[in-house]
């Protein structure tokens, strides 16, 4: 059962020096933000902030210098990511690119693709969206129906629809997972990834989907005889499935999987501070224990990644436990503090409680549903 | 892990595994059987595993000593192996003579000793959790219902995945605290990670025991099935050397004593 042992994270002086530097930067950069804005960290889209982070050298941190990276360790990157999320920084303008699209390009991209795009991501100037989910496929990615057909001149003609595409309306690029041969019955065979320019692709339209708060982060992206140039193929034709699975490991491994609700925990502690109530102390102690343990496990995943080991199952465990922790928080908070949740409230606790309550259902959906993750864990335990 | 530790781990795994499987119904054990069992535990040096070399102990590094406690947790036996390890460690610390024979009750402890005993229990629980997971995985693979192994049912797979996550978290929490103590944390800086470990592993024990019993079906609820040794031990251990409630309040009090803005720095320092 060694899969269940998480390696001890390595704490080096340079990591902690960087942490102080990042904290100092964030306390200035985020000084004017309300608690509610901090709670929206995941969905906060601020190109200026992303550029400032890029200027500090805190994007593309582990990539080669030749592509605008900084050749720092996975742990140093981890420090920056967890500090920005814990501080409630707006990360949406850079972090899909920094977290998964960039690493995928680095691994599978052509030299031209890497030289053109990676330095822009590292500078915080290039936003990506993820072209995986589809209307009738849901978690079953192998059922993808979006089809790219090779034309006589080598270009691709694409037809299909992608769904739940976060920030497609702001993105510069999408990595599109699609079928380049066969039918959906072929499952993962015959799939490929294409690098799609969201700004200059004829036949591509983006339509908003409002979430239950009425906010617009999701989109439907339609490809109708969209023409994508020959050099947009990412990696190997037909190897899309293996590539996309590698990409998902990046998406599932980070501290974002247990820090989505941290602003609510901060407001809860502010509301309970000095309380002598047994229930309050016990509940806060329990939440703190979960948070510290999740962080230890998540840093263990970073240790595995730094050693170049497969961390897919460890990441699935952290994501499953992390989503449960994040989703439990709103109900625990409302059981301890008598405050009416209200997005418009001037009371920070009431506003953040309202926001986190409404955001929470997505925590166990995005980046792989809970059921998919549990299937991955069960397989590793030898059950499938 | 040094060479001595590797030898001790190997010996303990074999010896405690054999005693665990051979012990039958614990209450049926004769006093002669009791005596023979303890003699082999003493011969292996296990009661001295947490005691420094200069006091006559094995002198294992702290993390290795507690790894041995986890191994003991995997194979519960009707002798107080871990309690005696702790009693001898504390006796040596206090300048008292080491114990002859098994020690079942630790008596009065200082606050630091109680916290250390609590940490040892956390690691012992991690071992028992690991064993529960192994036996539950084996059971659902062997047992068939409705014409296929239990392991083939998605509902069963998902329960096992939850069990696996809890086992991983309990163990990670214990290991995290051990790393902090090995670095020399004392006072509140020790209370916090030890409390975190006890709270998290205690919760894991409650959930794991429930899932293991559910997946074993009625057979696991019988006295003859050894699942009861693990589950009843976990239920007892989660409230010893500080109850689940005691430790969660201790952690919560420390967190609530600080400004809410200090939460994240406290997490990264814990």
UniProtKB/TrEMBL annotation, chain A:
PROSITE patterns tied to this protein: ACYL_COA_DH_1
Record GO terms (molecular function): acyl-CoA dehydrogenase activity; flavin adenine dinucleotide binding
Domain spans labelled Acyl-CoA dehydrogenase/oxidase N-terminal: 14-125
Organism ancestry: Bacteria, Pseudomonadati, Pseudomonadota, Alphaproteobacteria, Sphingomonadales
Keyword Chaperone applies: no
Natural source organism: Tsuneonella aeria
Any one Gene Ontology cellular component term annotated for this protein: plasma membrane
Annotated protein name in UniProt: Acyl-CoA dehydrogenase
Domain Acyl-CoA oxidase/dehydrogenase middle: 129-225
Cofactor(s) required for function per UniProt: FAD
UniProtKB/TrEMBL annotation, chain B:
Any one GO molecular function term: acyl-CoA dehydrogenase activity
Pfam families in UniProt: Acyl-CoA_dh_1
Entry keyword set: FAD, Flavoprotein, Oxidoreductase
Keyword NADP: no
Segment forming the signal sequence: none
Residue ranges occupied by any Acyl-CoA dehydrogenase/oxidase C-terminal domain in the UniProt entry: 119-232
Name this polypeptide is given: Acyl-CoA dehydrogenase/oxidase C-terminal domain-containing protein
Gene source species: Tsuneonella aeria
């Amino acid at each position: 059962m060694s899969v269940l042992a998480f390696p001890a994270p390595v704490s080096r002086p340079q990591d902690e020096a960087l942490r102080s530097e990042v904290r100092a930067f964030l306390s200035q950069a985020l000084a004017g933000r309300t608690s509610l804005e901090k709670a929206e960290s995941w969905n906060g889209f601020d190109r200026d902030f992303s550029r400032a982070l890029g200027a500090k050298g805190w994007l593309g941190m582990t990539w080669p210098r030749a592509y605008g990276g900084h050749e720092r360790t996975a742990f140093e990157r981890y420090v920056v990511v967890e500090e920005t999320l814990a501080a409630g920084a707006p990360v949406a303008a850079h972090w899909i690119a920094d977290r998964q699209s960039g690493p995928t390009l680095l691994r599978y991209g052509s030299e031209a693709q890497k030289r053109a795009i990676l330095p822009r991501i590292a500078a915080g100037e290039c936003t990506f969206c993820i072209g995986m989910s589809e209307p009738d496929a849901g978690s079953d990615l192998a059922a993808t129906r979006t089809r790219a057909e090779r034309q006589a001149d080598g270009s691709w003609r694409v037809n299909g629809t992608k769904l739940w595409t976060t920030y497609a309306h702001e993105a510069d690029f999408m990595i599109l997972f699609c079928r380049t041969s066969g039918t959906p019955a072929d499952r993962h065979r015959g799939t490929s990834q294409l690098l799609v320019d969201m700004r200059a692709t004829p036949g591509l339209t983006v339509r908003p989907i409002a979430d239950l708060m009425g906010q617009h982060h999701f989109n439907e992206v339609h490809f109708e005889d969209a023409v994508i140039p020959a050099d947009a193929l990412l990696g190997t034709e037909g190897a899309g499935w293996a590539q996309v699975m590698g990409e998902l490991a990046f998406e599932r491994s980070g501290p974002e999987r247990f820090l989505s609700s941290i602003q609510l925990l901060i407001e809860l502690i502010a509301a309970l501070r000095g309380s002598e109530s047994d229930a309050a102390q016990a509940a806060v102690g329990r939440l703190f224990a979960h948070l510290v343990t999740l962080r230890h496990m998540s840093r263990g995943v970073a240790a595995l990644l730094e050693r170049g080991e497969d961390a897919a199952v460890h990441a699935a465990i952290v994501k499953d436990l992390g989503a449960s922790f994040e989703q439990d928080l709103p109900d625990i908070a409302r059981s301890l503090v008598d405050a009416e949740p209200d997005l418009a409230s001037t009371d920070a606790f009431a506003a953040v409680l309202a926001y986190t309550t409404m955001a929470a259902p997505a925590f166990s959906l995005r980046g792989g549903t809970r059921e998919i993750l549990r299937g991955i864990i069960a397989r590793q335990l030898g059950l499938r | 892990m040094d060479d001595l530790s590797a030898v001790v781990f190997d010996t303990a795994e074999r010896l405690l595994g054999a005693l665990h499987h051979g012990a039958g119904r614990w209450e049926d054990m004769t006093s002669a059987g009791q005596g023979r069992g303890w003699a082999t535990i003493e011969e292996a040096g296990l009661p001295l595993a947490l005691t420094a070399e200069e006091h006559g102990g094995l002198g294992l590094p702290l993390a290795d000593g507690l790894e041995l406690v986890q191994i003991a947790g995997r194979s519960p036996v009707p002798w107080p192996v871990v309690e005696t390890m702790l009693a001898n460690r504390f006796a040596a610390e206090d300048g008292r003579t080491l114990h002859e024979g098994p020690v079942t009750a630790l008596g009065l402890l200082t606050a630091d000793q109680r916290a250390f005993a609590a940490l040892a229990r956390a690691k012992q629980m991690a071992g028992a959790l690991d064993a529960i997971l192994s036996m539950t995985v084996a059971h659902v693979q062997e047992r068939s219902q409705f014409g296929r192994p239990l392991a083939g049912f998605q509902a069963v797979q998902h329960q096992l995945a939850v069990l696996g996550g809890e086992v991983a978290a309990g163990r990670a929490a214990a290991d995290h605290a051990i790393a902090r103590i090995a670095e020399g944390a004392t006072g509140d800086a020790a209370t916090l990670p030890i409390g975190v470990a006890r709270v998290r592993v205690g919760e894991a024990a409650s959930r794991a025991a429930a899932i293991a019993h559910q997946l074993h079906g009625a057979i696991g609820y019988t006295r003859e099935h050894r699942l009861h040794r693990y589950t009843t031990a976990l239920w007892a251990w989660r409230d010893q050397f500080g109850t689940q409630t005691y430790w969660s309040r201790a952690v919560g009090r420390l967190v609530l004593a600080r400004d809410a803005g200090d939460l994240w720095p406290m997490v990264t320092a814990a």
